[in-house]
Amino acid sequence: MGIAVEELLPGSLLETLRGRASGYDERNEFCHQDLSDLAAADYLRMFVPLDDGGLGFGLEKVAAAQQRLASAAPATALAVNMHLVWTGVASLLEARGDRTLHYVLTEAAAGEIFAFGISEAANDSVLFDSNTVAEPTGDGGYKYTGTKIFTSLSPVWTRLGVFGKDSTVPEDQLVYGFVDRASQGYKIKDDWNTLGMRASQSNSTVLDGVEVPEARIFRKLPVGPNPDPLIFAIFATFETLLAAVYTGIGSRAVDLAVEAAHGRTSAKHQGRSYALDPDIRWRVADAVIAMDGIYPQLAQTARDVDDLIDHGPHWFPRLVGLKVRATETARNVVDIAIRVSGGRGYFRGSELERLYRDVLAGMYHPSNDESAHGTVANAWLGPLEE
User: Fold this and answer.
1) Which residues on adjacent β-strands are paired with residue 211?
2) Helix or strand (DSSP H, E) at 75
3) DSSP label at 66?
4) Are 129 and 223 in contact (CB under 8 A)?
């Protein structure tokens, strides 16, 4: 069985993390102490096998942990997600007989921190094309030139997973590799001044001919959709763990709505608690019903990944559908909680006010609403005719 999620993230630690969240947000500061506490608890080694010094968690258990963490510190959970994506990708590949990225797991066990340098402005093809140039160095390595956005963990990563397009070959190919922080040829911009999720410090990273040696080049794929296991592993971990973070936000919003309903009284109803008001009761019930549909979907999707269930061409619709449903449901539930809380929730510095800003980030993560609906429509109705 191993350690339980509640043991890994005890209530006392959650309260400590929750207590820091407002300060990180106010100062627009990276969550250094949170990350230190989580690393000390072996949280960053969740996907690492027991034999390699980790906790040996599968995706279902990691998603449960991220949901719990996000209920206390959403921006911290979102930042940690990016490290967990790469360790999760390595774990999923190994479960399917591909040990290409085993070194990611052993290095994570040794304390290395991985970050996700994939997203690019104006690249709505996401994993299927790249605006970044990958130039062969002649010895099996590549130089990368381009700009990656939303690079979470930017103050602390030691390994940055990137990809770019090599157009020097007869058919363009996408080349994946890991940049070492000690390398020359990249710059981290100080441009993360956002509405929410501020403690993630997801600054842009400018790659200016940064070299990745052959030993750190781990995939070359054709441009466009393809069935390579790496693509599935990235989608499965990225979308599921994003859903987990926003599910945690929605769960916390329900708790705050209940707390607010009990804490408010109505002069119109002779000082009775708003928890007895029919309209308030309806709103809180609506939030609970909405969240109750997400928990089993998240758990089952992650469990299917762990159990190597073959959903064939419907895997990607399932994954993007989960992400969109979780992020949109969380946004609606936070909105309900704000309405239930009354004017106090509108004041700067309240937890609900921060959640209201944090939850909006969900609409910007891939796959966005439009892309997800296109994926699902293609799976069920077939592609659009040219």
Assistant:
1) 143
2) helix 74-95
3) H
4) yes
Quick check: 142 and 217 in contact, CB under 8 A? yes
| 3-state class (DSSP) for residue 302 | helix
> How many CA within 13 A on the CB side of residue 357?
22
Please provide the size of the chain in residues: 386
Residue 72, number of CB atoms within 10 A of its CB: 23
> Domains of the chain by range and CATH?
5-113 (1.10.540.10), 115-222 (2.40.110.10), 229-381 (1.20.140.10)
Strand partners, 151: 203
CB 35 within 8 A of CB 199: no
Helices and strands (H and E) in the chain: how many: 11, 10
Specify whether the backbone of 246 is left (phi greater than 0), alpha (psi in -120 to 50) or beta. alpha
Q: Which of 256, 212, 217 is nearest to 356 (CA)?
A: 256
pLDDT at 108: 98
Where helices occur in 137-228 by DSSP H, the ranges are none
- The answer to whether the predicted template modeling score (pTM) of the entire model surpasses 0.85 is yes
* Model confidence pLDDT, tens digit, residues 37-83: 999 999 999 999 999 999 999 999 999 999 999 999 999 999 999 99
Q: What does DSSP say about strands 265-266 and 217-222: parallel, antiparallel, or unpaired?
A: unpaired
Banded pLDDT at 386 (limits 50, 70, 90): low
Tokens 């119109």, residue? 268
From the CB of residue 264, how many other CB atoms can be counted at a distance below 10 Å?
A: 17
Alpha carbon distance, N-terminus to C-terminus of the chain: 52
Q: Residue 249's closest CA among 47, 77, 367?
A: 77
CA-wise closest residue to 324 among 357, 303, 297: 297
Under 8 Å between Cβ of 345 and 337: yes
Residues 6+ apart with CB under 8 A from 225: 128, 231
Residue type, 375: T
Q: What whole-number distance in Å separates Cα of residue 53 and Cα of residue 40?
A: 13
CA 298, chain centre distance (Å):
13
377 in Cβ contact with 322 (< 8 Å): no
- Tell me: pLDDT of 269 over 70: no
Q: What is the pLDDT of residues 57-67, one digit of tens each?
A: 999 999 999 99
